[in-house]
Amino acid sequence: MGIPWLARAIDKGRMRLGNGLGDYVFPCPMDEEILRRLSLSPDQFLAILEASSGDGEVLQALSHRISSLGPGDWMALDVFLVRHSRLIADQDREEGRL
Asked: Are 1 and 59 in contact (CB under 8 A)?
């Protein structure tokens, strides 16, 4: 839905719920920054993930929050992507996505 890092936060949240987080951290500061934009605590986010059976339901549960984001929020998310682009690219490379 156009939010950088959201898919990764969803995956890590699911791993945490399944006790399979391993070396990953949820919530990390980047997860928290995205969740703050969506006015969600990590526990609220995990509750959404737990109540949802798939990505479609998660996105449906988040759609109102996402559609409520204003221009300043979208600009901040763009800045987030630029600010963390090197880290994101490094992680993609390490995990075989590049």
From this structure: yes
d(CA 57, CA 52): 5
**CA distance from start to end of the chain:** 21
98 — pLDDT class (breaks 50, 70, 90): low
Question: Looking at the domain assignment, is residue 87 inside a domain?
Answer: yes
Asked whether residue 88 is domain-assigned, the answer is yes
67: in domain = yes
Domain count, the chain: 1
Average pLDDT, the chain: 90
In this structure, how many other beta carbons lie within 10 angstroms of the beta carbon of residue 21?
14
Tokens of 9: 């936060």
- For residue 1, tell me if it sits in a domain: no
